[in-house]
Amino acid sequence: MLPLLLCLDHVSAGYGEKVIIKDFSLSINKGDHILLLGPNGSGKTTLFRLILGIIQPIKGNVLFPNGRSVSYARQDPPSSPFPISVEEVVEMGLWRSGRDKERTIDEALAMTDALHLKKRLFHSLSGGERQRVSLARCLAQNSPLILLDEPSSFLDRESRDSFISLMEKVATKDRAIIAITHDSSVIEKLGWKEVHLERRKDE
Prior knowledge:
alpha/beta
């Protein structure tokens, strides 16, 4: 069995007195590729916030046997009003310096077929290009676990199909990926393991 990266052990979570997730358990091993499914309000974003450490569980435990190392690409990456380049976006979160950093950025952009965008301003990119750059940033961080929040949202059909192919490409045994999606084409074409969250009936 591949190494365990994350264990959600009978976790309950929410905001204030409102419980969104109750008694939920999930183990993520290196190489797992998972689609997180469920209706709005079922707790998909809350689960990501738990994994990222933004919120703490009401009950249960969020365990990282080898320490928390997670990269996150949000839904529809925002277009910054500042003149920030693609290269600078990918560089965010990197601790390397000098030639190693430059090489890491180039390799990540090349992996997502976005190296030609390196000197472009991020705000000038299309939705599909921004998603590729955001994924490159995650890859550059070399985290064993990547979270993708609705990666195909706001993309036209051609860009969506292209990004699905890219997700297949980066879904290797060396990293785990959890992707939130409502997109039936993503679910059908990727064929990843599905984890379903249900909206709580007592809300």
